Amino acid sequence: MRGHLTVAGVTRRFGAAVVLDDLSIAVAQGEFVSLLGPSGCGKTTLLRCVAGLLQPDAGRISVAGTEITRLPAHKRNVGVVFQNYALFPHLTVAENIGFGLRAQGVGRAEAAPRVAEALALVRMTEHAAKPVTALSGGQQQRVAVARALVVRPSLLLLDEPFSALDRKLREIMQVELKHLLREVGITAIFVTHDQEEALVVSDRIAVMNAGRIEQLADPATLYSRPETLYVLDFVGQSTRLAGRVTAASAGAVEVRTALGAVRASGHFAPGSAVVVAVRPEAVTLGHGENTLEARVREISFLGSRTQLHLGLADEGDRGMVELPRLPEGVGPGSAVTLGFRAADAMVFPAS
Ligand SMILES: Nc1ncnc2c1ncn2[C@@H]1O[C@H](COP(=O)(O)OP(=O)(O)O)[C@@H](O)[C@H]1O
Ligand SMILES: [Mg+2]
Q: What is the architecture, at CATH level 2, of domain 5-232?
């Protein structure tokens, strides 16, 4: 396993807690990879180890073929954008961006055009002379990205950079950042706990669970082929039914659930306790290859689509169907017939 950034078997403890657990990941040159996971799973700790702000207890980190595990932060040529931007409030936009160049000993004559280039890159040229305190949250975010890029790092690390922005602005910044980083061609690691954000910005997503990477894949694969129940639940929504395998043949199983028999794709022996899951958009109202009868408990109107939340008998079962529009006569309490293909029904071992 070799990449532009290679993290091999990194472990980090805080007291008795193992926060990074023999974690490995390789990121290719120019790739944009997100670390996605709930609060406390070790995302920031991993980023800090790569940036050199924290030492791992075991394992190796290398960038562009050179091991940097014990190298001090300022010698790593790694740019970092923190959650809180960490801009200098008493400096102007241009001075903030130029700060890292001055620290590197870059002279005024060389610094000026590089600052101008970084300003143009994030479309902040007209704000160069303003104090950063006069900027909006989105503009401050752009300055933080420009400040990290101006030193031409070989790797850019971003730790939940949009968490302070409101939703609308966040969505704009996500697409902007993705476009900008592709333009620059830089390798980037982006930390987020927001699965939608990860799906939007990333070339690949590493789903983290308790200090380990549970699955590393491109967004479409992660969504359509989650390898574990944890990934299934963390990325996107689904209808989930617990059950037991009653019959199995080459690559297909029949599962007895609280709503009836379901045919699905998977390799499990008869008798196995499993969970069957279907993504909401794979379910339609009416009969299908699989047909289940359920009752609507709640309806969520989301504008471009409507979610039907189903009342399911079993404790661990969860039902959610998405439709472009609510069918005539369907409301809370309605009985509905759900159809879906066996190929769209995923099977996982019950946890
Ligand atoms: N300096 C520290 N001292 C003690 N515990 C820490 C320290 N930094 C992080 N932790 C703990 O490590 C775990 C992972 O933290 P962190 O990497 O910040 O998670 P995330 O960024 O995924 O939310 C948490 O339980 C946190 O309390
Ligand atoms: Mg964090």
A: 3-Layer(aba) Sandwich (3.40)
